[in-house]
Specification:
Strand content: 35-45%
Structural class: mainly beta
Strand order of the largest sheet: 1-2-30-29-28
Radius of gyration: 22 Å
Number of helices: 5
Largest sheet: 5 strands, antiparallel
Number of strands: 30
């Protein structure tokens, strides 16, 4: 889910690295370098451009919730995406960024998914999400991507408006919008170097319902490489509670999708992930709770799981397969808040931090084995990434165990994948925090001051049980606590990061704050331009001051 707002400026290097750390590559060139942003038309030699794309290439704004996928037909081709806030000054909200590399992630070409409100290109006006944007659903995000073997990449996300209360309860909101899957194909099917460069279409899978209805969010996508079937799952949030996981499939390479089918059982379901078994089994995991939307009664929380043995036509009854206590951000607020920042979002503990409360399990397969990973809260309060394994199709699971038994620091936002018989996992880790405490949010000292201490780590396994010594991927630590959202009052770094692997190619992607220009404020979390620092950008003001305080970016690194 994307969070609202703001403005920016700062320079960064495209490649940074240090001894023992893979080169970190900046994906989002919204700083006047790297060629700016191109339209889908320009990606295949056309000429269309507009004011939205121009501002996206220069304004140094925020990007988060990155996705990454490697082309199995040509592993030099990579695609990525994010919630891209570069569209705010012209399109008035964030949109889905689409980024492509043809040199194994060394350089990237940036663009936006066609269909944003001001998009008058042929591709944009033909998209059904364009009509939704014209009707008020001007935001788009929650990006996930998956390739088939024919040079097609399928890009899933949602678009929506942020909702205006239309009744006496906050549950009633004008949440127009939808969940969609876009297809990008090879511009020359005979040339794999053109894979994923030509925008083909966007298909709407489900639409939000006005008022006390539904809001489609938290997306997951996967492709069966054997038959090309595309599988999509997402969370359907209802105004009257008991949100569901729904599933849809395409058997015609993304041209159409089946009607959404509910596959969850209990309430409080969100964050689906999909994996494919060796003979076409479809496995779906997500976070669930038995306590209902508002957590009443005795509650069991953990990783829910369902499987299909007929290509996604029908599913087993979903269960909470692996109970665990999730590591979530509200344990650090003192009042149950998901994130804490400046007033009115300050918290009793005095700490500042973004939300990291989507404790979705991430899922992958290796032959007959299925492995899930998730962020667990230990009894001490420390956040730890743990994994569990099933070798019988999900009928039973091993006791969850740490993939990185680091005694210091919080770990969160895991993502796992598998290729060539090897599991790969990435996650954020705050072991570099000089003031680490199990009862403090990452990168906070006892007075609530913030600083750069968060890194991305990688580990691998051949059996899903024993994991290698972790490897730091980030060349510099990042401060996740910059208050860049809500009019520079709260931090936000998205709900996930990712790793993708095909053959021997492994690449990670994450949200990074290294290019953010900090203000001189004493707590270390205020970006330059904030009124706390003598700037002109106060809380909830639509302010584009070009100071560099909002320069949040997507970075990648190949894993050696």
């Amino acid at each position: 889910m994307i969070l609202a707002f703001a403005a920016v400026l700062a320079l960064s290097q495209t490649l940074t690295g240090s001894a023992g750390v893979s080169a970190n590559v900046r994906v989002t060139h919204d700083n006047g370098t790297g060629g700016g942003y191109l339209s889908a038309d320009q990606l295949v030699g056309g000429s269309y451009t507009d004011s939205v794309l121009f501002r996206c290439g220069t304004d140094r704004r925020q990007q988060n919730e990155p996705t990454l996928a490697i082309d199995p037909r040509n592993t030099a081709i990579r695609t990525s995406g994010s919630n891209d806030y570069c569209a705010i000054p012209t399109n008035f909200d964030a949109w889905a960024g689409f980024y492509r590399s043809n040199d194994s992630g060394a350089t990237w070409t940036d663009s936006l998914l066609p269909g944003y409100k001001l998009d008058t290109s042929t591709q944009g006006t033909a998209s059904p999400v364009h009509q939704m944007a014209l009707g008020g659903a001007i935001a788009a995000g929650d990006p996930v991507q998956a390739w088939d073997k024919a040079g097609n990449v399928f890009y899933m996300g949602n678009n929506f408006n942020r909702g205006i209360e239309d009744g006496p309860s906050a549950a009633f909101r004008d949440n127009t919008g939808d969940v969609w899957v876009a297809t990008y194909a090879a511009s020359n099917p005979a040339d794999s170097s053109t894979d994923g460069s030509r925008y083909v279409r966007t298909v709407i899978l489900a639409s939000n319902v006005f008022g006390l209805g539904s809001f489609n969010d938290k997306t997951g996508i996967q492709v069966d490489q054997a038959n090309g079937n595309v599988y999509a799952a997402w969370s359907d949030f209802h105004g009257n509670g008991c949100n569901e996981i729904v599933f849809s499939r395409s058997t015609d390479h993304g041209a159409s999708f089946s009607a959404p089918m509910k596959i969850s059982s209990v309430c409080s379901n969100q964050g689906p992930n999909i994996a494919i078994g060796p003979t076409g089994q479809v496995y779906v995991s997500w976070f669930a709770s038995t306590g209902g939307t508002f957590g009443q009664g005795n509650v069991t929380m953990g990783a829910a799981f369902a499987s299909s043995l007929d290509g996604g036509r029908t599913f087993s009854k979903a269960t909470i397969a692996v109970p665990f206590t999730p590591f979530v951000s509200n344990q650090f607020s003192g009042n149950g808040a998901r994130q804490c920042g400046d007033a009115p979002f300050n918290c009793p503990t005095g700490q500042t931090f973004p939300r990291f409360d989507l404790a979705q399990p991430t899922l992958t397969t290796n032959g007959n084995d299925i492995v899930m990973a998730f962020q667990v809260a230990l009894a001490s309060g420390q956040g730890q990434i743990q994994a569990t394994k099933s070798s019988n199709g999900g009928s039973s699971w091993s006791t969850p165990a740490a993939i990185d038994k680091e005694a210091k620091g919080h770990q969160f936002f895991p993502w796992i994948t598998a290729a060539n018989g090897m599991y790969s996992a990435v996650y954020y880790d705050s072991r570099a925090d000089p003031n680490y405490s199990a009862t403090s949010a990452p990168c906070n000292d006892s007075s609530g001051n913030g600083y750069a201490c968060l890194n991305v780590f990688y580990t691998s396994s051949t059996d899903g049980v024993s994991w290698t010594t972790s490897q730091k991927l980030t060349s510099v630590p990042t401060n996740p606590n910059f208050e860049q959202f809500g009019g520079r009052t709260v931090p936000f770094i998205g709900d996930y990061i990712m790793v993708s692997a095909v053959g021997n190619a492994v690449e990670a992607v994450w949200t990074d704050q290294r290019d953010t220009v900090a203000g001189p404020d004493s707590d270390g979390n205020d970006p330059l331009g904030d009124t706390h620092n003598g700037g002109v950008c106060g809380a909830f003001s639509t302010c584009f001051d070009l100071t560099g305080g909002l320069d949040q970016n997507i970075y990648t690194a190949n894993v050696s």
